[in-house]
Amino acid sequence: MSPRKTCNIKYSLPALVFTLFHLTSVAQETAISQDISSVEELDRVYGAGAANLAIIDQQGNFNRISARQDGVVNFLSALQNGHQNVLYVIQSGNQNSVTSKQLGDANIAALIQVGYENLILIQQTGYGHSVNISQYGYQNIAKISQVGAYNEINIYQNGNGLHAAVKQTGATLTTIVKQYD
């Protein structure tokens, strides 16, 4: 087994984007602190706009985060503590926020926010949970808590001012929420 290395990085996203993708962006920041034991764990955070922020802390092996932020003042905070957790985030618009805590192993979250001032809060504790959330519109809120194993939540919000809160405790539970205004 190879020795583990710790890497604490704070980049200005324009420099990162230019270096990695030869694109330009304005006033983006990314703070990444992660425990690296393989190349597969490296995060991909990219986008275009101004004052977007991603804070990522990964502990464990083979955790993956891919995030795209387009617009102004979008926020992503992610903590992955365990192994093989996956987070995909697309934020397009202004002032959208995601906070995700994946505590355990093999948890997956795929999130899309298009619009303004949308909020997603996720906490997954356990093994094999799945969350898929799509928010389109203004000021939509989705709050998720999963504890146990193999629980699944799908939320689709299309409109303005929609609110969904789902808490799953147990195993193999499935919840589907579709909201429109």
Encode the helix/strand succession as letters: EHEEEEEEEEEEEEEE
Portion in strands: over 45%
Read across the widest sheet, the strand sequence of neighbours is: 1-2-4-6-8-10-12-14
* Helix count, DSSP H or I runs of 4 or more residues: 1
Q: Describe the biggest sheet?
A: 8 strands, mixed
User: Rounded to an integer, what's the Rg over CA atoms?
Assistant: 16 Å
Mean pLDDT across every amino acid position: 81
Share of helix, binned: under 10%
InterPro entries: Curlin_rpt
Keywords: Signal
Family: Belongs to the CsgA/CsgB family.
Protein name: Curlin
Characterization of this structure:
With 181 residues, this protein is mostly beta strands. It has one helix at residues 13-21, and strands at residues 5-12, 29-36, 44-50, 53-59, 64-72, 75-83, 86-94, 97-105, 108-116, 119-127, 130-138, 141-149, 152-160, 163-171, 174-180. An eight-stranded mixed beta sheet has the order 1-2-4-6-8-10-12-14. The N and C termini lie far apart (54 Å). Residues 1-27 form the signal peptide. This is Curlin. InterPro entries: Curlin_rpt.
